[in-house]
Amino acid sequence: MERHIALQAGRRKRWRATGQGMSKSNNVYKDAFNRCLRLLDEARSLPSEPELGALLGVSRTTVRSILARMEETGLIAWNKRAKTVLRDPRSDDFFPEEETDTLAEIIERSFMRRLLAGGAEAGMQINELELAREIGVGTTSVREFLIRFSRFGLIEKRRNSHWVLKGFTRAFALELTEIREMFELRSAAAFTALPQDSPVWSDLDRLEGEHRVLAREIATRFNEFSELDERLHRLIHRASRNRFIVDFYDVIAMIFHYHYQWNKAQERERNEVAIGEHLAYIEALKSRDLGKVDAACRKHLKSARQTLLTSIPESRPSQKN
Amino acid sequence: MERHIALQAGRRKRWRATGQGMSKSNNVYKDAFNRCLRLLDEARSLPSEPELGALLGVSRTTVRSILARMEETGLIAWNKRAKTVLRDPRSDDFFPEEETDTLAEIIERSFMRRLLAGGAEAGMQINELELAREIGVGTTSVREFLIRFSRFGLIEKRRNSHWVLKGFTRAFALELTEIREMFELRSAAAFTALPQDSPVWSDLDRLEGEHRVLAREIATRFNEFSELDERLHRLIHRASRNRFIVDFYDVIAMIFHYHYQWNKAQERERNEVAIGEHLAYIEALKSRDLGKVDAACRKHLKSARQTLLTSIPESRPSQKN
DNA sequence: TTAATGTCTTTTATCGTGAAAAAACAGTTT
DNA sequence: AAACTGTTTTTTCACGATAAAAGACATTAA
After folding, report:
1. Does the pLDDT of residue A8 top 80, yes or no?
2. pLDDT at residue A259 in the model
3. Closest listed residue to residue B316, CA positions, set B173, B122, B156
4. Percentages helix, strand, coil for chain B, rounded to the nearest 5?
5. H-helix or E-strand spanning residue B52
6. CA atoms of B124 and B117, how far apart (whole Å)
7. For B216-258, how does the pLDDT look when each residue is reduced to its tens digit (9 = 90+)?
8. Is the minimum distance from the CB of B17 to strand D below 7 Å?
9. Of A248, B191, B220, B238, which sits with the fewest C-beta atoms within 10 Å of its C-beta?
């Protein structure tokens, strides 16, 4: 009777479970270390600890761990303020990519893989403990992930009981795009009303340039479009100056992120069309003509919705409980 | 330099900290027990365990604990299927109200009290550990609460660091009401399009009746309006058949819930006006005249926004960091 | 006297653990 | 057989503990 999202609880070993009580991974350090290595290439010496911290987005504590390791491995000579680069980093100086991920990222990826891998029908139960065991993490992290994830509208909690999967269905896509269209039309209108000296106009120019470059080299770089897409839409949404609108773009971005990874059919053609629509949209915004903006925005969103919809197979009308 | 929301970390004792490792409180049991006591009044005997479970919204395990205690305290005689009521419940049979609250409720109340008590300026840091200690709960519960609460747009997390209070400001209220107006206008339009045989029309009739009754007895029962308010707006929002719109009402409901508790100025007058607006709104919906609906909806939402705004003192332009 | 480094303290992130509650299974009664 | 009761297993919820990371304080160099 009961169906679980994480079924094949195949006794895959918990690869993380080394010792016990392994509190917290040091992925922040590892990731910052890797990024710091890339900085090394072009510099003869490194700046002060606080400056490095600001650059890498980490605390001084972490910066000092990085410097300590760099000294140990002979990358730099470190004496108080003097941090001289001794040699170029080799590929084996880097920590492996997979060790730099946040637990939240690991859990999300794992969860989404299961969700999109098929066999994840609406109404299924989600089992925290089972999910945690399969991914090899503690239950707390899974719980926190599910709570955070719930705002995407794909899962729902039954009061002091399990989570229920609502499914990545046609209905979901339609509800999502309905809101998206409301929000983006309003944001685009707000965008045109921004004063000429607002920095958004130069941001828009820059994005336009990048679109043109990508359009020219579309044959080889078509997969770089998704990042550009997000940047343009986020710029427009921000013009609304409304935190709920801005935050909602997280939902859209998440869905499209996985959608791009998943649906590779006619990717090049689709992206080529979308770039054209973006350029028209950008032109309209620059013209500040509300009518044109509205039309260009509607047109693009309509085709984006269509793309999303065609990638969702309509599930058989399953029995409701 | 740093300002914390939970400052007066006054050595108030942790009233909950009885022993140690007190895993989980049995508030589900206690609350269900109390509700079951009320059922006892009008019955000579109790139904089967599964039926009781469904009625109280708890599992059979909990039902059996309840029955066991009722037998112990001489409220019923229990032998297999026979659960005969022996006496009426006395007031000391009930568990104290405060023991029936969810941890989440306790934390929310405590947090909101601090937030609204003043001295909670935008930009303040929120300290999980301190908050947990003050409330007398574990850090995990506080973390989970903050994650859940973050969707209300009042707090924001700094990556691997603290939470920041964004403040219950005028800007917040304006952003909130902007979305509310978009969503409700759309929902109200969808409402009028619902077929005549949809159950919403009788729900609406019932609500209209309750509004009329309350209007008549407004002098004494004005504080019952907030519940009616939420029911009407939720009914309308549901017509959108869009989970994001429906879910967003949680944000509105939360804000208005605390707003009602907090701003008692001219409560009677305000509610009286609102009831009038609601009745006009309901009439408009029943007429299915889109123009009328739009006007009535706009009018009511405008005055609701005004009420909310006047209750928020504009904070001094504080220095940004 | 400003801004860095060196050191120490506090907070966050994550885990394992155990009680409460749910859910599954097995045995009875109608 | 269907629906209940009795029993056992599983899952959720909440805690304290601990390493990672942030942050504060003290000291030193420019």
Report:
1. no
2. 86
3. B122
4. 60, 5, 30
5. helix B49-56
6. 14
7. 999 999 889 999 999 999 999 999 999 999 999 999 999 999 9
8. yes
9. B220
- Residues of chain A found within 8 Å of residue B166, distances taken between Cβ atoms: 243
Answer whether A231 touches B (CB < 8 Å): no
**Most confident residue range from A41-45, A78-82, A317-321:** A78-82
The 10s digit of each residue's pLDDT in A10-21 is 323 333 333 456
B264-306 confidence digits (pLDDT tens) = 888 899 999 999 999 999 999 999 999 999 999 999 999 999 9
pLDDT for res B198:
97
Task: List CB contacts (< 8 A) between A178 and chain B.
Answer: 242
Q: Tell me which residues of chain B, numbers 40 to 79, contact chain A at a CB-CB cutoff of 8 Å.
A: 57
**Alpha-helix runs per DSSP H in chain A:** 27-40, 49-56, 60-72, 103-116, 128-135, 139-149, 170-192, 200-216, 218-221, 225-238, 243-262, 267-287, 290-310
CA(B69)–C1'(C22) in Å?
19
Task: Please state whether strand C lies within 7 Å of residue B141 at its CB atom.
Answer: no
Q: Which member of B153, B160, B251 has the closest CB to residue A28?
A: B160
Residue B94's identity, in one-letter code, is F
In angstroms, the Cα distances linking B108 to A210, A242, A306, B77, B120 are: 46, 24, 41, 40, 15
Q: Cα(first)–Cα(last) distance of chain B, in Å? A: 10
Which chain A residue has its CA at the smallest distance from B181's CA? A182
Closest CA to A166 of B247, B57, B44: B247
- Interchain pair B179, A151: CB under 8 A: no
Contact list in B for residue A147 (CB cut-off 8 A) is: 144, 147-148
Which of A3-7, A166-170, B92-96, B302-306 bottoms out in mean pLDDT, i.e. has the lowest?
A: A3-7
The model scores a pTM over 0.85: yes
| Strand D bases with any atom < 7 A from protein Cβ | 3-8, 10-24, 29-30
pLDDT range class, residue A222, cuts 50, 70, 90: confident
Please tell me whether residue B163 adopts helix, strand or coil conformation: strand
User: pLDDT digit string (tens) for B2-44?
Assistant: 344 443 333 233 333 334 567 899 999 999 999 999 999 989 9
Q: Which two tokens stand for residue B7?
A: 């400052």
Instruction: Give strand pairing partners of B165.
Output: B155
Q: Compute the distance between CA of residue B2 and CA of residue A42 in angstroms, rounded to an integer.
A: 37
| Amino acid symbol at B63 | V
pLDDT (mean) for B88-116: 96
Q: Which nucleotides of C are covered by protein (CB under 7 A)?
A: 3-8, 10-24, 29-30
The answer, for B122 touching chain A at a CB cutoff of 8 Å, is: no
- Helix, coil or strand: residue A9: coil
Contact B73, B11 (CB under 8 A): no
Cβ distance of B144 and A148 shorter than 8 Å: no
B45 CB contact with strand D at below 7 Å: no
A243 and B148: CB-CB below 8 Å? no
Chain B span 255-314 residues with beta carbon within 7 Å of strand C: none
Strand B76-79 relative to strand A163-165, pairing: unpaired
Radius of gyration of chain B (CA): 24
Mean pLDDT of chain B: 91
**Length of chain B, please?**
321
Instruction: Show the tokens assigned to A12.
Output: 């895959």
Q: Sign of the C-alpha dihedral, residues A174, A177, A183, A186?
A: negative
